[in-house]
Amino acid sequence: MTVPSPAATTQTDGMVIVVTPCPHCRAVTCVCGYVAERDARREARRKERGRRQRQARPYDSVERTLHAGIIAAHVEAHGWWCPGAPDLGHKPHAVKPGALDVDDIVPVSRGGDRRDPQNKRVLCRRANRGRRA
Which of 10, 61, 69, 106 could be stapled to 112 by a disulfide with Cβ–Cβ 3.0 to 4.6 Å? Predict the structure, then answer.
């Protein structure tokens, strides 16, 4: 005895399309409105995730450009070299290309100016990310 599948299937041009019925009204085309509500909730969650991700990236294009210029000037003068940070107990060392970051000396959360080049220093990513922990 074969148990019927809860999904309906249709065949178009040799391709099988599986259509899952609504879990509430069991109709292939929802008549109770559940599917529309579910899709609206999914879209709202997707937008909220995007909003949180944008908030998690505090840098704007001006600051990213400033950071890129600071790193380029450092690499031109010193090569791929982390200058270290004595206040963090971090010694100078060579780094792989692309492994340098720009650090705010006085964090923005403590009143540091985000766009002031005098408040910036070059560190390797390991030292800069370790500082936040």
Answer: 106
